[in-house]
Design goal:
Elements (H helix, E strand, L loop, with lengths): L14 E4 L3 H4 L1 H7 L5 E6 L3 H11 L3 E8 L5 H13 L4 E6 L1 H14 L3 E5 L10 E6 L2 E6 L7 E4 L9 H19 L6 H23 L4 H20 L4 H11 L5 H16 L4 H11 L4 H11 L16 H9 L11 H13 L4 H4 L1
Parallel strand pairs: 1-8, 2-3, 2-4, 4-5, 5-8
Antiparallel strand pairs: 6-7
Helix pairs in contact: 4-5, 6-7, 6-8, 6-10, 7-8, 7-11, 9-10, 9-13, 10-12, 10-14, 11-12, 13-14
The chain binds nicotinamide-adenine-dinucleotide (NAD).
């Protein structure tokens, strides 16, 4: 690290309320604080019961529950939700659920101009970012717009009690990926580095506790705290090779979001390690480990997460195409991105070999 400080940091006006039971006990206050009187609650089919409990707590301030969120926000799903919000005369939106529900809330915020409140039920971190996504004709577009940043985020560890352990682990490692890439982002800063390191530490300690005792509110709270910090890092910085590669693997090859992040992260970190020694040292400190990529892979593998892209269904024949697509875009990354370099790490991730070999 150079000893001359040189950075920019922009904080966004987001209020965070964090406590068990907050989904029901705090969301009405957050709606009232924003002066909203007619909010639409959006969620996915699986989270509809929780969303209805939130809607009940809102009473007359809620004009309906729209339970049609789907993965990666298909444009037609977004269009239906925007029309539902307009038809109900909504003046705000409350998204209850994982990244898919929050993504749908963001689409309503973007197109309908409505303020958004997020009540997350996974560790995806979308609630802390001004990033929206929309999928049309098989292609996912993303963009940044301050209007989609939730004004208020209600973290309720009780909502995550039902998150199955395998999903908790992969969603948790998805969160770690945000913090890891924030550490070497071109727009990182001292505050981001603090959040990233503590976010990684909190999440990495909490995941084994969650796996051992999924009903522990303490462990769930510590994981959600880690997710908050990691999500804040995602919102504050520009992501690199890891996120671009996972975007290609999900968007073009249909691989599952959180599982793909979980398999790929140790390999990208090993690949970037020679060009980002301070970031790797911070991850190692947070994991209390000597070798950060190996420790990341051991953490998720020990907790039963998939270890290879082959397990996720990626064909070996697709590796070159994925590498070319990933190297064909331009984005910041500490190590120059070449098709050969990406192919090397993809081969290792496909087989699930120890990540240390990727560095050489
Ligand atoms: P998700 O919202 O699709 O949830 C995954 C699955 O878990 C779903 O089947 C959902 O019904 C279920 N689920 C959610 N919460 C649950 C709970 N508490 N108990 C039981 N089941 C539960 O996926 P995700 O991993 O939360 O988010 C991934 C999506 O979010 C992707 O589309 C990704 O691109 C997007 N994302 C966006 C940003 C951003 O900044 N815009 C950041 C991170 C992720």
């Amino acid at each position: 690290m150079t000893d001359v400080l040189d950075f920019s940091y922009e904080s966004r006006p987001v209020r965070v309320v964090f406590r068990p039971g907050a989904a029901v006990s705090a969301t009405p206050d957050e709606v009232a604080r924003l002066g909203l009187r007619r909010v639409l609650v959006v969620c996915g089919a699986r989270g509809a019961d929780t969303a209805r409990a939130v809607a009940d707590a809102l009473g007359p301030a809620c004009v309906g529950v729209h339970d049609r969120a789907r993965m990666h926000v298909p444009a037609e799903v977004a269009g239906t939700a925007v029309r539902a919000a307009r038809a109900a005369g909504a003046d705000g939106c409350v998204a209850v659920g994982g990244g898919s529900s929050i993504g749908l809330g963001k689409a309503i915020a973007l197109r309908g101009g409505l303020p958004l409140i997020a009540v997350p039920s996974t560790y995806s971190g979308s609630e802390m970012t001004p990033v929206w996504g929309l999928t049309e004709h098989g292609t996912k577009r993303t963009g940044r717009d301050p209007r989609v940043q939730p004004r208020s985020v209600v973290y309720d560890p009780e909502l995550t009690l039902s998150l199955p352990v395998p999903l908790s682990v992969t969603s948790g490692v998805n969160a770690l990926a945000h913090a890891v890439e924030a550490l070497y982002a071109p727009d990182t800063s001292p505050l981001v580095r603090l959040m990233a390191e503590d976010g990684i530490r909190a999440m990495a300690r909490a995941l084994p506790e969650v796996a051992a005792e999924p009903a522990s509110l303490g462990a769930r709270g510590r994981a959600l705290y880690g997710a908050w910090l990691c999500g804040s890092c995602l919102g504050a910085t520009t992501m690199g090779l890891h996120h671009k590669l996972c975007h290609v693997l999900g968007g073009t090859f249909g691989l599952p979001h959180a599982e793909t992040h979980t398999v790929v992260l140790p390999y990208v970190l090993a690949h970037n390690a020679p060009a980002a020694p301070d970031a790797v040292a911070a991850v190692a400190r947070a994991l209390d480990a000597v070798d950060a990529p190996t420790a990341l892979r051991d953490l998720s593998g020990r907790l039963g997460a998939p270890r290879s892209l082959a397990e996720l269904g990626l064909a070996e024949a697709d590796l070159s195409k994925a590498a070319a697509l990933t190297a064909g875009q331009s984005y910041a990354n500490p190590r120059p991105v070449t098709a050969d370099g990406v192919l090397g790490l993809l081969r290792a991730a496909h087989e699930g070999t120890p990540p240390a070999a990727v560095t050489r």
